[in-house]
Amino acid sequence: IMMTPKKVDQNGPVLKFVSRVRQESSIQFLDKELFSTPLWLINGKIFSLAGGGGAYTVLGVQKKILKTILSHSVFVRLLWFESYYPDKAFTVNELFLDLENGIWGELKTGKTMNRESRNLQKAYCDRLIALLNLKDLKNPYEKAYLGKANENTDVPSIIKGHIRKLILMIHNAQPKYKNEIIRFHLKDLETRLKQALKNENK
To 5 degrees, how large is the angle CA 67–CA 141–CA 76? Predict the structure, then answer.
């Protein structure tokens, strides 16, 4: 939501939602520049001259962005947008779909995934699990207020729906891969997500 403070005698809106086109292009930008591993940051020559965390630095930034985008604060704003302008809104479900198309694109084709892609997929799953279980959220405001506000909206259903979709997609993709580490990775994620749904239903 964008705010443009105005005096009483000024015309035009004070509050305005970020357009659907701009929100979609923002996700596309992140997919291209961050979620598709920026390998230039993981460079032995740069490390030899300046040090750095390499893959851990990249993963740290990716996790921070995922935490920002996949948050109850964002979900509340998207639901507001949809409630006021249903034909113009970028929805919570579309946000998940766009992120999945980038982060999990290899699973649809059987394309091999490098270590950094696997790390990002684990971080994505961890974020879904945290959103599903409010007690795992670290931000007190999100946990106590925004998460509770969303309990009786479509948000929990969307999160669970996308977890179930991921479980099926991960399960079906495993036979495509001969690499043992990738198979370990996929089986691990399938187990984590199934356990999260099981724990949530207790």
Answer: 65
Angle at 90 between CA 87 and CA 91, to 5 degrees: 95
- What is the model's pTM? 0.84
Q: How far is Cα 20 from Cα 25, in angstroms, rounded to an integer?
A: 9
Integer angstrom CA distances of residue 202 from 130, 135, 198? 16, 14, 7
* Per-residue 3-state assignment (H helix, E strand, C coil) for 17-79: CCCHHHHHHHHHHHHHHHHCCCHHHCCHHHHHHHCCCCHHHHHHHHHHHHHHHCCHHHHHHHH
- CA-to-CA distance for 193 and 11, rounded, in angstroms? 50
pLDDT digits (tens, 9 = 90+) for 111-146: 899 999 999 999 999 999 988 876 556 666 666 556
- Residue 23, token pair as written in the block: 């929100």
Cα separation, 24 vs 110, in Å, equals 26
